[in-house]
Amino acid sequence: ETSTAARRSAELEEQIALRPNDFRVLTGDRPTGLLHLGHYFGTLHNRVRLQRQGVEMMVIIADYQVLTDRDLAEHLGEHVDDLVLDYLAAGIDPQTATIFTHSAVAALNQLLLPFLSLVSVSELSRNPTVKDEINHSRQAAVSGLMFTYPAHQAADILFCKANLVPVGQDQLPHLELTRTIARRFNDRYGRLLPEPDALLSPAPLLLGTDGTKMSKSRGNAITLSATADETARLIRGAKTDAQRHITYDPQSRPEVSSLVLLAALCLGRDPHDVAADIGPGGAAALKRTVTEAVNEHLAPMRERRTAFAQDRGYLRRILREGNERANAIAEATLAEVRSAMGTRY
Ligand code: ATP
Ligand code: MG
């Protein structure tokens, strides 16, 4: 599935380069803490590049989704600010990008009901990402929100008729469900919704320091806003393997290869070349290379972040304006959906 998605992503990149105006992007994140390198190289880096290529950009802060795997959404306001700061630091331009919060756009939840009617319980229950997240969740029982959140995401994407979604590999099953919902809606009620494509980056599944998916909730992440020292310490403790000679071979050496890829992405180099340069230096040399590359790549972002953090009023304004734009778009789509379904009397 991933290699098909990677091939499709390569095709899409060609089309985007030729006709950026044909695309509208929707992506987003949950406000559960600081963004990490997995988010950055999985999706955020692509968003910034697409925006610079002239693609229209919508970014959702998925606050309701915080409740999928925890009972309480704590420090939400703080986490929302942290996300906006990470976006700004990475280079998202709020002049042209619409940054908004899910809970401020009520029409999203109105779209959810008809969308839920278009999927079966068995389709929802066989979603591999949801299964994986349930296994890692601290909750005793699986909530209805956890079970249905891929359908909410379909509303988050389709409300603005986005046709391009830059995401990490874990999101592919959700994108497939969104396409299914769009297709069934169009079949049943007449053509209205696009079938959006996932756009994968060269790092669709960056591993954390323990060798599993880098994840906010697994304590294995290196955040974008960490200090240089903290970054060095975390990378020093990262899992590698028993082979001394460093090579790039994601299939047989996932932990080492993820570190090599991380350095390569920061340096703008080919991972095979980076591995060849380190070669006999072993894990210690690899970690030194990664630490330097990451810290150098992130330094300007970390500086910008500190500067933006001085002006909370600016963050409030970005969200106020983003929410206003998102609401106007969502209301218009909801009106079309209701007309198509015959529920406008
Ligand atoms: P996490 O997944 O880190 O626990 P989260 O669930 O709060 O945190 P999401 O909002 O699910 O984060 O992820 C936002 C985006 O970042 C998604 O497109 C997802 O695919 C991508 N992403 C998250 N972790 C990684 C990773 N390790 N490698 C590549 N992409 C990732
Ligand atoms: Mg996640």
From TrEMBL:
<dbReference type="InterPro" id="IPR001412">
    <property type="entry name" value="aa-tRNA-synth_I_CS"/>
</dbReference>
<dbReference type="Pfam" id="PF00579">
    <property type="entry name" value="tRNA-synt_1b"/>
</dbReference>
<keyword id="KW-0436">Ligase</keyword>
<protein>
    <recommendedName>
        <fullName>Tryptophan--tRNA ligase</fullName>
        <ecNumber>6.1.1.2</ecNumber>
    </recommendedName>
</protein>
<dbReference type="GO" id="GO:0004830">
    <property type="term" value="F:tryptophan-tRNA ligase activity"/>
</dbReference>
<keyword id="KW-0030">Aminoacyl-tRNA synthetase</keyword>
<dbReference type="GO" id="GO:0006436">
    <property type="term" value="P:tryptophanyl-tRNA aminoacylation"/>
</dbReference>
<dbReference type="InterPro" id="IPR002306">
    <property type="entry name" value="Trp-tRNA-ligase"/>
</dbReference>
<keyword id="KW-0547">Nucleotide-binding</keyword>
<dbReference type="GO" id="GO:0005524">
    <property type="term" value="F:ATP binding"/>
</dbReference>
<dbReference type="InterPro" id="IPR050203">
    <property type="entry name" value="Trp-tRNA_synthetase"/>
</dbReference>
<dbReference type="InterPro" id="IPR002305">
    <property type="entry name" value="aa-tRNA-synth_Ic"/>
</dbReference>
<comment type="similarity">
    <text>Belongs to the class-I aminoacyl-tRNA synthetase family.</text>
</comment>
<keyword id="KW-0648">Protein biosynthesis</keyword>
<dbReference type="InterPro" id="IPR014729">
    <property type="entry name" value="Rossmann-like_a/b/a_fold"/>
</dbReference>
<keyword id="KW-0067">ATP-binding</keyword>
<dbReference type="GO" id="GO:0005737">
    <property type="term" value="C:cytoplasm"/>
</dbReference>
